[in-house]
Amino acid sequence: MKNFLQKPNEKIFGLRNLDRDTLIYRVLPRFLLEILRKYFRMEVEGAQNIPRRGAVIIAPNHSGFSGFDAFLLGHIVQQEAKRVPRVLTHHFWFLTETTAIPASKMGFTEATYENGVNALKKGNAIVLFPEGEQGNFKPTTERYQLQEFKRGFVRMALEAQCPIVPAIVLGAEETHINLKQLKFTKFLKGTVIPLPLNIIPLPAKWRIRFLEPIRLPYKASAMNDSELMHEIAQDIQEKMQAAIEEEITKRGNPFL
């Protein structure tokens, strides 16, 4: 008769053979992200729009101040498209070794133009938020109102000659409530931080939808045309805003 109280065979899970860094920065994050995926009752649509190989920019809206959207998007791309994306994130993650080391091991890269282009030229998928911190830290009263897109992601796409896959995320705005956006004018001038209402995430239902890839019909030299870059970024922003509004009209109460 099998003894159900015996110690499980650790080789089944391979835990004994994992080094500390792999366990802390890879296994545990994936385990926690799967829990969050279930907690948020996440729905994913359009994952087939993510190219399975080659350079691509995945450009989502940014919201909820906590960075959960960055974690979960990276996880979804890995699970659904079988790719390990480089997630370009806020430079605050890289101010000290304490945060920079785990961030790097979890696939985060500091959001600079050079880092994005280098990753793309190696054939990687990157997740890049065109709104930047203005979108992530906007007050909840402005939820689902896209902030002005920066143009760097368009220039990256042209320099690397790769497609852009817009993505929309619903649910993060209700998961973490931001009362206000604080802007520093004297110390740390130009820095923006949130004034959160809650730290523990609320159980809003999440939906992530990947739109069809956009392939820009221009040569790399077009990146020097600032007016064209602004026009393309604005067109993509309007396309994403329309998709967000379409999803909002269909979803009903996000907590039910």
Quick structural gist:
The protein has nine helices and nine strands. By secondary structure, the chain is α/β, with parallel strands linked by helices. The chain has a single domain (17-251), classed as 3-Layer(aba) Sandwich (Glycerol-3-phosphate (1)-acyltransferase), CATH 3.40.1130.
List keywords for this structure.
two-stranded antiparallel sheet, 7-stranded mixed beta sheet, single chain, Glycerol-3-phosphate (1)-acyltransferase
What does this structure look like?
With 256 residues, this protein is of the alpha/beta class. It is 39% helix and 16% strand. A hairpin with an 8-residue loop joins strand 7 and strand 8 (192-196). Helix 5 (113-121) runs parallel beside helix 7 (152-160). The longest helix has 26 residues, at 226-251.
Number of helices: 9
Low-pLDDT parts are 1-13
Q: Main sheet? A: 7 strands, mixed
Total domain count: 1
Give Rg in angstroms: 19 Å
CATH-assigned fold name: Glycerol-3-phosphate (1)-acyltransferase
Strand order of the largest sheet: 1-9-6-2-5-3-4
User: How would you classify the helix and strand content by structural class?
Assistant: alpha/beta
The CATH architecture can be named as: 3-Layer(aba) Sandwich
- The CATH class, by name, is Alpha Beta
* Residues in helix, %: 25-40%
In N-to-C order, the SSE pattern is HHEEHEHEHEHHEHEEEH
Coarse morphology:
globular
Please tally the β strands and state the result. Answer: 9
- Could you tell me the mean pLDDT? 86
Work out the strand percent: 15-25%
GO cellular component, one term: membrane
Domain Phospholipid/glycerol acyltransferase: 56-172
Organism: Bdellovibrio bacteriovorus
InterPro entries: P_lipid/glycerol_AcTrfase_prd (IPR016676), Plipid/glycerol_acylTrfase (IPR002123)
